[in-house]
TrEMBL record:
Coiled coil: none annotated. It comes from the Eukaryota. InterPro entries: Znf_C2H2_sf (IPR036236), Znf_C2H2_type (IPR013087). Pfam families: zf-C2H2. Residues 6-33, 34-61 form the C2H2-type domain. Keywords: DNA-binding, Metal-binding, Nucleus, Repeat, Transcription, Transcription regulation, Zinc, Zinc-finger. It is found in: Nucleus. GO terms for cellular component: nucleus. The keyword Transmembrane does not apply. This is C2H2-type domain-containing protein. The keyword Zinc-finger applies.
Amino acid sequence: MEETPFQCEYCHRFFKHKRSRDRHVKLHTGDKRFQCSQCESAFSRSDHLKIHMKTHDHMKPFQCSFCNRGYNTAAGMYFH
């Protein structure tokens, strides 16, 4: 069985790497130091801010082949 020694003190979930646990803990603490320059949104992770910024540039590079609706992330189109 794979060892997962790093536990979240808030929800008690286990992680294999300390870095993964530390990133996860930010979801509980509300540490949102990545602020959007165009609105009031803030994020705990820079990659989440990067995804959010695509909502402001109105670029939607992922397009549904059935209904032609556009999405700014592949995940957005996938869940469509």
